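In the design runs reported in the main text, the only information available to the sequence generator was the tokenized backbone. The following block is the verbatim input for one such run; it is reproduced so that readers can re-run the procedure and compare outputs position by position.
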């Protein structure tokens, strides 16, 4: 059974509970507010650790990636499901795959949920540097497939 929380009252407790389930937490391809990171089903992201502060949950992945999620709600993470229904904001950071893990190869994608829209910005040259996602508000903040 996974963890299902409405408003998450204690993110540090949630991080500890997720950590007890490692390495059995679902792995797969990520989608942020309906937008795939990479091609659908092309990547396999594996959570290796989890921590939190008062307002954000941080998930660390096997290739140095980090997903920070501010004010997550509707969190369901277990061996069969990885879903964060809503969040105030999130940041996905990763090193360019196949290159050394050096500062010049570190990229980010920031998302902010504001007034029914999801705004984004990135330093990754593969997509426009900023904008808003169409109909993103109808998707969960984070999903893994």
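Verbatim output:
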């Amino acid at each position: 059974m996974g963890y299902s929380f409405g408003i998450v009252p204690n993110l540090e407790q949630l991080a500890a509970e997720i950590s007890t389930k490692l390495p059995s937490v679902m792995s797969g391809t990520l989608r942020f507010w309906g937008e795939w990171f990479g091609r659908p089903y092309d990547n396999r992201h594996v959570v290796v650790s989890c921590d939190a502060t008062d307002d954000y949950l941080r998930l660390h992945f096997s290739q140095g990636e980090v997903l920070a999620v501010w004010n997550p709600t509707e969190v369901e993470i277990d061996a069969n499901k990885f879903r964060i229904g809503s969040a105030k904001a999130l940041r996905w950071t990763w090193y360019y795959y196949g290159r050394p893990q050096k500062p010049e190869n570190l990229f980010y994608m920031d998302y902010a949920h504001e007034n029914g829209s999801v705004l984004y910005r990135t330093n990754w040259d593969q997509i426009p540097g900023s904008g808003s996602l169409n109909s993103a508000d109808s998707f969960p903040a984070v999903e893994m497939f």
